[in-house]
Design goal:
Nucleotidyltransferase, domain 5, binds adenosine-5'-triphosphate, FtsA/MreB, about 270 residues, PilM, EutJ, alpha/beta, binds magnesium ion, 5-stranded mixed β-sheet
Amino acid sequence: MIIEKGVLDSFARLVEDEQANTAEGKLKVGVDLGTANIVLAVVDENNEPVAGATYPSTVVKDGIVVDYMGAIRIVKNLKNQVESLLGTELTEASCAIPPGVVSGSVKAISNVVEGAGFDVINIVDEPTAAATVLDIKDGAVVDVGGGTTGISILKDGEVIYTADEPTGGTHMSLVIAGYYNVSMEEAEKIKKDPSREADIFPIVKPVIQKMATIVKGFLRDYEVPAVYVVGGACSFEEFTAVFEKELGIKTIKSNHPLLVTPLGIAMNCEKGA
Ligand SMILES: Nc1ncnc2c1ncn2[C@@H]1O[C@H](COP(=O)(O)OP(=O)(O)OP(=O)(O)O)[C@@H](O)[C@H]1O
Ligand SMILES: [Mg+2]
């Protein structure tokens, strides 16, 4: 099952077309330092998308900054790019971490965003950020990115549990690289080619089952009405069906799964949010 969110369509269009909407009032900025992609998102006070930009990442691995200067450079470039679209300077931002990373890594992530010229006013958990966009009050939000599978469980609008394990899209590419005996770059291309999905899916299915097993472990002590999946690794057509089979819980995917967490980080750009 898929939920379609208009805000995600409008944010995707802005990123794709390299356009900015006019906005009144304070701008809220979110920086997502992902394993696969770095995304900068801007929304207005009403959480309407204003602008955004994205760049492929090799500088962060599962919430750990492995190339500090490279990461700062990319965030600075994205900041400049979006500022020239907007014709205004961006000063404050929020950033996000996979749930459960140690405090030293949290500091490294916010230092990158500060190093790029922002005041970091809030740090949120990635799946919690996604829950803001999807407007979830009850259920589990699972973010399957390039490197990790993170979860936030919400009850009556409150986050009651968060956790994270290293398994993501990179592991799918590893399996494909092994199967076809090709490089990781080639495996990434094959994986994202929709015309090859029918051949690829049986090869990556065990990785999806493994992700579902991880989520099942996280949900052991909680009863949730539904599981919401976001992040690039859930892009496969039959992803939710595999989760539903393993979990026995309704699993819902959103449109533009790659953009949910970054947009949610921007929506959480408020002091003490
Ligand atoms: N169409 C697609 N089909 C399959 N996988 C895809 C597709 N598009 C993107 N991906 C995969 O999604 C992953 C990137 O997703 P995302 O941008 O959510 O991760 P990230 O935020 O950078 O990583 P993390 O949150 O784990 O640090 C990559 O592994 C990429 O190969
Ligand atoms: Mg991510």
